[in-house]
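thread from #wetlab-drylab

HS: before we spend reagent money on co-crystallization trials with 4-(N,N-dimethylamino)cinnamoyl-COA, can we at least see a predicted complex? here's what I'd submit
DV: go for it
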Amino acid sequence: MSESPIEVVDNAGVVRLTISRPKALNALNSDVLSELERVLAELEARDDLRAVLITGAGEKSFVAGADIAEMRTKTPEEARAFARQALATLKRLETLPVPTVALVNGFCLGGGCELALACDWAVASDNAIFGQPEVLLGVIPGFGGTQRLPRRVGPAMALDLCTTGRKIDAAEALRIGLVNRVMPQAELDSYVEELTRQLGGNGPRSVRATKQAIHDGMEQDLDSALALETALFAFCFAGDEQTEGMSAFVEKRKPNF
Ligand code: DAK
């Protein structure tokens, strides 16, 4: 059997996924997408899941896009099926109930940028390069980029990036809000490992509720979204976690979640 293109390392519910197709700069082909979908389906069923980190193998590339060689000969029907497969997989990633962090170590182009956009966080190395270069190949972003990018950076900047296909460096990605942090490449890995450990150590019920409130609330009008927040706030008082968190504060000790 061939080796899986997704490496999974689980550290007490903090899971690191590494996309590994180094010869193609970790470009996403159908095999990678199918395997990612399978891994995410297993993760979403786990009650003990705390946080997920996703990255690309090696130091040169996070993901250099969808696999151009594989896409080159697709018919419109095959392109539709490929885009649907990718969209379903990225939706699964986006709706995982725990925080997700894209660790962007190098090229983050096309489908790679769209993968990062489906994560809650993006932390980049100072040499990372971002872009949606699809128009240079005669297509448009097909993995959600035309929709998630404007929601992240605003429609003007999304149109700029998607219609020029220009590449931007990590400093510009930070300035426009595409990424949350930029780190020297040598420190990136340990920083993100510590970040995910920290996210994983916070109250799991309240972290999940926070993600649900923000994600679901953004799709609703303000009054409905505020009602959702109230319901989730009350829900937090229904378990042991809030008692432990508040007791720990009063007793001047660390909470044990
Ligand atoms: N696909 C396939 N192979 C790729 C690749 C990609 N996206 N990117 C790189 N590679 C391969 C190269 O072909 C090369 O393979 P060999 O020649 O060694 O066999 C190897 O990785 C190393 O790449 P380079 O030799 O080019 O390395 P450099 O350092 O010189 O350049 C680069 C790195 C990232 C600047 C360059 O490789 C590059 O420009 N890559 C393409 C980046 C790109 O355009 N990405 C966007 C892909 S388009 C849709 C669905 C999806 C999409 C659109 C529509 N529908 C279904 C409608 C999404 C499209 C995209 O993501």
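DV: The chain has two domains: 6-199, 203-250.
HS: ok that's useful, forwarding to the group
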